[in-house]
Specification:
- It is a single chain.
- This protein has helices at about 5-35, 45-50, 50-80, 85-115, 125-160, 165-180, 190-210.
- Helix 1 (about 5-35) packs antiparallel against helix 3 (about 50-80) and helix 5 (about 125-160) runs antiparallel to helix 6.
- The protein is mainly α.
- The chain has one domain (about 10-40, about 45-215).
- This is DUF4386 family protein.
- Keywords: Membrane, Transmembrane, Transmembrane helix.
Length: about 230
């Protein structure tokens, strides 16, 4: 029997590393933004001048995080190969791409607020309220709903294919439901999606290390068999 090629070893590691980079950068960006920007109902716009440098730094992290997330999706799909179910794969890819696109648009809108806030009169204008509401809704409502859908579909793919530990799928369902119901009203739910991606990525990395360690190969016999689509 021919053993795995080097590419089969590198693919899950690449997915795990990309997921870890995405999660750490998004956690850092969200932490900085939530610390700097006031809640929407009480936001007077002072952060756009007093904390502009911190917000600008957080916004610079988001494009790198988005590219890492797209790489995470790509290498996972490559890993699944013919075991990938077309229905789940479509929703998995679509929700992931929409999440990245919405986050990018929200970041660009926030950056435009920083630029416009160089005029002190801007924060008292209706335009500020419009831009602020736009960035809030893009992030907390639309992007995070797509993140919840991504967690649901990715968790279903974990159950069907067993490419990582099944408990991460249960965690994904729980966190996805929390995000779906509360993202627009509870700010800390922003952290749940990157935390779940970080958990899945670390689990993939640990499992891959066990598979490549001769002393631990036998310990992985309990992993579920690959999903074989019905003919």
């Amino acid at each position: 029997m021919v053993g795995p090629t080097p590419a089969t070893h590198k693919t899950p590691k690449a997915a795990a590393l990309a997921g870890i980079v995405f999660a750490l950068l998004m956690l850092a960006a969200f932490a900085i933004l939530l610390q700097a920007i006031e809640p929407r109902l009480s936001d007077k716009g002072g952060w756009a001048q007093a904390k502009a440098h911190a917000v600008h730094f957080a916004l610079q992290l988001i494009p790198v995080a988005g590219v890492s997330f797209l790489w995470f999706i790509g290498v996972l799909r490559d890993r699944l190969g013919p075991n990938e179910d077309k229905l789940f794969a479509t929703v998995f890819l679509g929700s992931g791409v929409l999440f990245v696109g919405l986050i990018f648009v929200a970041a660009a809108a926030t950056s435009s607020i920083l630029f416009a806030a160089e005029d002190p009169a801007f924060v008292d204008s209706p335009t500020f309220k419009l831009a602020r509401s736009l960035t809030y809704d893009l992030t907390s409502v639309y992007a995070m709903k797509m993140a919840a859908v991504f967690m649901f579909t990715a968790s279903s793919m974990i159950i069907r294919t067993g490419f990582t530990a099944r408990w991460t799928a249960i965690l994904g369902y729980a966190l996805g439901l929390t995000v779906l119901l509360a993202s627009q009203s509870v700010s800390w739910t922003l952290f749940l999606f990157p935390i779940w991606v970080l958990t899945v990525s670390v689990t993939i990395l640990v499992r891959q290390w066990r598979l490549t360690d001769p002393g631990t190969v036998a310990c992985d016999d309990t992993s579920p068999p690959p999903f074989v689509p019905e003919t």
